[in-house]
Amino acid sequence: MTGSTTLFHVSDIHFGIEDQRAHAWFAAAVAQERPDAVICTGDLTQRAKHSEYAAATRWLKELGVPVFVEPGNHDLPYYNLAERFLTPFRRFETLAASVHCDLHMPQLIVIPLRTTVRAQRRFPWSDGVITQRALSACLTELERHQGDRRLKIIACHHPLVTRDPARPNPTIGGDEAVLALARAGAQVVLSGHVHDPFDFTREAEGRSLRMIGTGTLSRRLRSTRPSYTALEVTQAGGLTAWHRVFEGEIAA
Ligand SMILES: [Fe+2]
């Protein structure tokens, strides 16, 4: 992969209900292949406990490569409602400060988009919401890089849209965000949350936005075994993605 950039995209590692064998499998791949960075799109913990955050921090640091993190809905305080409402991202930000890196690389830029909120008018609160503020922050960053030919990758926890446009979109503001991001020059969106990998392209006003979701390394499986995604970005800006599935014995 000379001249290209390799990223490992992992999500929903869920310390507290992690699959330790799947975690070890991922860490071994990082040690062996030395990707240029790991992107983790949220749900680092199961209940945002201090002990779960401590374990996640240790694990991410021990990977020994640059790590980019975004929070998921499980990363906001679950038991301490006062903290959830007053400082919802404090525990996450403590972790982020100790592992986080800005991913501005020779071939790509990774820009975060916050899709988790402390509360919303509907249930479940686990579904995604893209606030005007979060979208504006992301668009401002894209605007700053207008004319920059590097691949613009958005990293968020919740998928912005579903593969089938006829199905209801559980992410509030997702459709509008896709349109705005495509207009602003984003080319790829990486997400997690659904615990099953996917890869499809959504057209918006003649522009293409590739939506790549990765699986989980936790015991909370849906239809896929534990997995992560390896991404290679070439010098010409091409992107190849491989969903890698854990073939070993999975935790009960
Ligand atoms: Fe989630």
List the helices and strands and how they pair.
Layout: E1 5-10, H1 20-33, E2 37-40, H2 50-62, E3 67-69, H3 81-86, H4 90-99, E4 108-112, H5 132-144, E5 151-155, H6 174-183, E6 188-191, E7 198-204, E8 207-213, E9 227-233, E10 239-245
Parallel strand pairs: 1-2, 2-3, 4-5, 5-6, 6-8
Antiparallel strand pairs: 1-9, 7-8, 9-10
Helix pairs in contact: 2-4
Bound molecules: fe (ii) ion.
Fe (ii) ion binds at residues 43, 72-74, 126, 157, 193.
Could you explain the architecture of this structure?
This protein has 252 residues and is α/β, with parallel strands linked by helices. The chain has helices at residues 20-33, 50-62, 81-86, 90-99, 132-144, 174-183; strands at 5-10, 37-40, 67-69, 108-112, 151-155, 188-191, 198-204, 207-213, 227-233, 239-245. It has one domain (5-245): 4-Layer Sandwich (Purple Acid Phosphatase, chain A, domain 2). It has 6 helices and 10 strands; from the N terminus they run E-H-E-H-E-H-H-E-H-E-H-E-E-E-E-E. Helix 2 (50-62) packs parallel to helix 4. 41% of the residues are buried. Bound molecules: fe (ii) ion.
